[in-house]
Structures are given as structure tokens and as C-alpha cells.
């Protein structure tokens, strides 16, 4: 997910987002002997606003986090990305892996009380892949039959390989085997959509809590499209409402950690994110929590808008001029770490050896710091593009952490002769819009894993991916990604090698600049218990939280 779209969806959200929604849990603190309080209300801070509640258009964690709580699809993900039935009661897969038949629950309802049926999935999926929708996550449907032809306007969205023989049966046909297909089905983009609500509200659909249809464990209220506060209440129409422990969650956007800490100390917040400066004072306290998720913060360079950024030596110089370890350990100081590459560490393992993907794909030059080499490559690259000076704008969010990051990057990059950097820290919603529109030179983006597979990161940088806002293109890279999805899709070892080779090409050519792998440190009141899902996708994580006496 785009952590501010560009995660958290942070970036990704996380800027960091509610790490409750997509990070590794340290441990479930749930105890059978714990007595629950009668007042099951939790007050939570988040760094990001909601951009949209339209599952077809949501791409940042600020939006995806609430959608996980108010919506539900065929599956949800448990610990270690284990697929669990949500609306599905059974699944049948053909021997060739191309046809999936799902039997769905008959007791699931929309928030207006109307039943959720297989046709709601058919409508929702067709809407996502319709080019007119301009869904940022439409590419996740790439393996579904006729998706490519629909994207090229050669076929109607009605020809997508999904059908509903009856109200409780959903049939999906793939064009080729997709090893991670079940993982995708727990993601909000694959949730059902209520046609009557979408048509009723038109362009206003998903722009407020009152103009959104959903079917998950919570109802969302008091969000008007720009609100900095909103609430979630237990959904009386949810099919599994007995499993929902909390009655209400109050959310408040807090962009400055010191403000959040003050509200926490005043008992106005129960969950709050700490800054690096605050961590030393709280790291040994019982309410201190640290979450490390499958996410990466990186720098995109707009090669379509800035001629100089098309030069590989210029891009390599920019990367070498940034001390990533110093950024993580001395500037942020929140447990974040220097990256080994684009795909985060401790995320995926070699199917044969069990080695970490990030280690197998490690290309030192793509993440190293060497100021003298940076200046040398800079001089060579600028000579090749025929320029002596270059001014670049640096776009990011307006959170405290984002401001620290951009100020540090400015100080590092301004060391390159003839380069000047201007910072633009703007609200998340504005940043997402500008990133998508290509209105930037450099942008600090973030990605949080939506499912546990390297393709979730690497697919973003293919030529046709709508999230490739920097417009980096490498034909050999695209070939490796394509092979991992087609000829090598059913061969785990070959597919793994394809993805490792793709990552190495990305780093050698400096398609993007990995900056750091985020960690989120928070304070949770000691009377709040429960658990959090893993980094490869969270499903209804707040269901497991509860307040004790």
C-alpha cells in the first residue's frame, strides 16, 4: 500500500500510519484471565488523513487502514499471512490453477441492511479494471482473464473473468497461474462494492462516511471528506459481530508527535506514535510498543519532467550523496534502519535455502553512501546532459517525520556542485494528487506490503504500472517481472531468481533511491490488549483489541 501513497499507504501510511494496520505484532497480549471493561472505547492518533473510502480508488494507507476495518472480502489474513475465510465458506481451485470457485456466506450485509451477494464482487471488480475509474491498484487484477485487453480498451470491463452463477457463488478465471492470488483477495481493492450506492452518489461516492457503502466489523461516522477526526462503531449488521470486542474507536489526525504525546499524557489519547527524540524516555516502560513492518521509504525521480534525471550517473550520484544509515539512526532515531534495497528485509525467503530475499538481491552500490564518488559521477552525468546547474523540488508530506527527512535530504544533496533543492511539505492528500499527476521533481514515497511476496514491491516499477510516478523504464527488468508471472509462475526457484535479478537491475540502474525501512514506536495504555497483524496485510485488526479493567 502506498504509505502516503506515497504508505505509509505513510507513506505507505506509515508516515508512519497506524501501525496497527500493517505491521508485525510483537505478541498477542490477550489473556483468558483478563477482565474486560464495560467501556470498550479506544482513542487513537494517526498521522494521515483519509483520502477516500472508495475501495476502487484507495491507494494510500491513510485510506486503506479504515477500509480494512469497515469492509471485508473473500478472505482475511491471519498471523504470518495465513489466508483465512472471511466471506468465503469454501474454495475450489481447478487442477490447472486457472479457475477459482468460491461459495460465499448468505448472512453478510451492507451497512444499510441489504445482503452482500456474489454480484457485488462482479460489479466491484469490473469497476476497478475499467480504465475510466483510473484505479491505482487495478494492476493487481493483471492475472484475471481479459484484464490486459480491457486496459487497452479492446474489451468491455464486462468481459473480465469473473461471474456469479448465483447469489452465493463467485467464479474467477485467470489467464495464467498467479501464485499469490489468494493473498490478493484479502486486500480492499478486491472487496465487494454495492452498485446501487455507487450509482446513487456518483462522483461523491466514498468522499464522506455518509456516501459510502461497506460490510465490515465497524461503521465509520463523522468523516466529511476533510475531517481530522472520525469515529468507528461496532457494525450491528456484520456477520461475525460477536467476535468484535470494541464498541467504538475515536481517531484524531496528529502530525506532530509532541502534540500526540501531550494528548496521551492528558488521557485524551490511548494510542500515540512517538518521535525518535521521545523514544529513549519511554522504551523501557510497559506501554511502549515497537512495530517493524514490510515497508520501505524511497525517493522517486521524475524522469519524464526533468531531463537530467534520465541520466543514470546523475541518479547514482544523488543516491551516493545520501547517508541512509545516518538518516535512520541519527535523524529519525525511532528504530528505522538503512535499507538493503527496495524490497524490505525479513519479508520473503528463498524457497530453497531460506535466505532473506533482501540479502540475496543486495546490490551495495544502490544503497551505499560515498560523497566523493557521488561528486565524481555527478560531474560526469551533468557533462553528459550539458548542464552545469540543476534546481530540483523535493515533495513530501507535512508530518513531523517527513519534514525531518526532507530537511536532511536537502542538506545532503546540496553538497553536489550546482545542485539546489527546494522543499515542499504538503498535506498527504495533496501529495498523493501531485505524485499521481507527475507534479514533482523528487518525491519521498513509501510502500507498505499488501501481501507477502516481492512482486508486491517490484511490480510498482514496471513500465505500465500506474504507481511508477518517476517513469523509470528498463526493458530487461520488465522481462524478469513478466517471466515471474508467466513462464516461471509455477516454478518457485526460477520465479525467485527472476525477482532477485529484477531487484539487482533496479538498484544498479538506480530506478529509485531507497532511503530507509521504517519502524513505528508507540505508546499503548497498559489496559489495552489485543494483537496486530503481520506486515503483509492486516484484516480487521481492531477486532482483536479490547480494553480491560
From TrEMBL:
Task: Tell me which Gene Ontology terms the entry assigns under biological process.
Answer: peptide transport
Q: Which Pfam families match?
A: SBP_bac_5
Family the entry assigns: Belongs to the bacterial solute-binding protein 5 family.
Q: Where in the cell is it found?
A: Cell envelope
Give GO MF terms, alphabetically: peptide transmembrane transporter activity
Signal peptide span:
1-21
Q: Which PANTHER family match?
A: PERIPLASMIC BINDING COMPONENT OF ABC TRANSPORTER, PERIPLASMIC OLIGOPEPTIDE-BINDING PROTEIN-RELATED
CDD domains tied to this protein: PBP2_OppA
Protein name as catalogued: Dipeptide-binding protein DppE
- Residue ranges of every copy of the Solute-binding protein family domain listed in the record: 82-468
Task: Name the SUPFAM superfamilies for this protein.
Answer: Periplasmic binding protein-like II
Asked if the record carries the keyword Heme, the reply is no
Annotated Gene Ontology cellular components are: ATP-binding cassette (ABC) transporter complex; outer membrane-bounded periplasmic space
Against InterPro entries, the record matches this protein to: Peptide/Ni-bd, SBP_5, SBP_5_dom
Presence of keyword Signal: yes
Q: Which UniProt keywords apply?
A: Peptide transport, Protein transport, Signal, Transport
Amino acid at each position: 500500500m502506498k504509505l502516503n501513497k506515497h504508505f505509509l499507504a505513510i507513506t505507505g501510511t506509515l508516515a508512519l500510519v497506524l501501525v496497527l494496520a500493517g505491521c508485525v505484532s510483537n505478541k498477542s497480549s490477550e489473556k483468558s484471565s483478563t477482565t474486560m471493561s464495560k467501556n470498550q472505547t479506544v482513542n487513537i492518533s494517526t498521522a494521515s488523513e483519509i483520502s477516500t473510502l472508495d475501495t476502487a480508488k484507495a491507494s494510500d494507507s491513510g485510506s486503506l487502514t479504515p477500509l480494512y476495518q469497515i469492509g471485508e472480502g473473500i478472505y482475511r489474513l491471519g498471523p504470518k499471512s495465513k489466508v483465512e475465510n472471511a466471506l468465503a465458506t469454501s474454495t475450489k481451485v481447478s487442477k490447472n490453477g486457472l479457475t477459482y470457485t468460491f461459495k460465499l456466506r448468505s448472512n453478510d450485509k451492507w451497512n444499510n441492511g441489504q445482503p452482500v451477494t456474489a454480484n457485488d464482487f462482479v460489479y466491484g471488480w469490473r469497476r476497478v479494471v475499467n480504465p475510466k475509474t483510473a484505479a491505482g491498484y487495478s494492476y493487481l487484477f493483471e492475472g484475471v482473464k481479459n484484464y490486459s485487453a480491457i486496459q487497452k480498451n479492446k474489451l468491455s470491463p464486462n468481459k473480465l473473468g469473473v461471474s456469479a452463477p448465483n447469489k452465493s457463488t463467485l467464479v474467477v478465471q485467470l489467464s495464467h497461474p498467479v501464485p499469490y492470488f489468494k493473498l490478493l483477495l484479502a486486500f480492499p481493492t478486491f472487496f465487494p462494492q454495492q452498485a446501487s450506492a455507487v450509482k446513487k452518489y456518483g462522483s461523491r461516492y466514498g468522499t464522506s462516511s455518509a456516501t459510502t457503502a461497506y460490510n465490515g466489523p465497524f461503521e465509520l461516522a463523522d468523516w466529511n471528506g476533510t475531517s481530522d477526526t472520525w469515529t468507528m462503531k461496532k457494525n450491528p449488521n456484520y456477520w461475525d459481530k460477536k467476535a468484535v470486542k470494541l464498541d467504538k474507536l475515536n481517531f484524531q489526525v496528529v502530525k506532530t508527535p509532541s502534540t500526540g504525546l501531550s494528548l496521551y499524557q492528558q488521557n485524551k489519547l490511548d494510542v500515540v506514535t512517538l518521535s525518535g527524540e521521545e523514544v529513549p524516555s519511554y522504551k523501557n516502560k510497559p506501554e511502549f510498543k515497537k512495530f517493524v513492518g514490510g515497508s520501505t521509504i524511497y525517493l522517486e525521480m521524475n524522469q519524464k519532467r526533468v531531463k537530467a534525471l534520465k541520466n543514470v550517473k546523475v541518479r547514482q550520484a544523488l543516491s551516493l550523496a545520501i547517508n541512509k544509515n545516518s538518516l535512520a539512526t541519527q535523524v529519525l532515531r525511532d528504530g528505522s534502519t538503512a535499507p538493503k534495497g527496495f524490497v524490505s528485509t525479513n519479508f520473503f525467503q528463498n524457497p530453497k535455502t531460506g535466505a532473506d530475499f533482501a540479502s540475496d538481491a543486495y546490490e551495495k552500490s544502490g544503497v551505499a553512501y560515498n560523497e566523493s564518488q557521488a561528486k565524481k559521477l555527478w560531474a560526469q552525468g551533468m557533462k553528459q546532459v550539458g548542464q552545469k546547474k540543476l534546481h530540483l523540488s523535493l515533495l513530501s508530506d507535512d508530518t513531523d517525520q517527513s519534514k525531518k527527512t526532507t530537511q536532511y535530504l536537502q542538506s545532503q544533496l546540496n553538497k553536489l556542485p550546482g545542485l539546489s533543492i527546494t522543499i515542499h511539505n504538503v498535506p498527504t492528500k495533496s501529495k498523493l494528487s501531485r505524485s499521481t499527476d507527475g507534479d514533482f521533481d523528487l518525491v519521498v514515497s513509501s510502500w507498505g506490503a499488501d501481501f507477502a511476496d516481492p512482486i508486491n514491491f517490484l511490480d510498482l516499477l514496471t513500465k505500465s504500472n500506474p504507481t511508477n510516478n518517476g517513469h523509470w523504464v528498463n526493458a530487461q527488468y520488465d522481462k524478469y517481472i513478466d517471466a515471474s508471472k508467466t513462464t516461471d509462475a509455477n516454478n518457485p526457484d526460477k520465479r525467485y531468481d527472476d525477482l532477485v535479478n529484477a531487484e539487482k537491475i533496479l538498484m544498479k540502474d538506480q530506478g529509485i533511491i531507497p532511503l530507509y525501512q521504517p519502524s513505528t514506536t508507540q505508546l499503548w495504555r497498559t489496559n489495552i490488549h489485543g494483537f496486530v497483524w503481520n506486515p503483509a496485510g492486516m484484516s480487521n485488526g481492531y477486532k482483536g483489541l479490547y480494553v480491560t479493567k
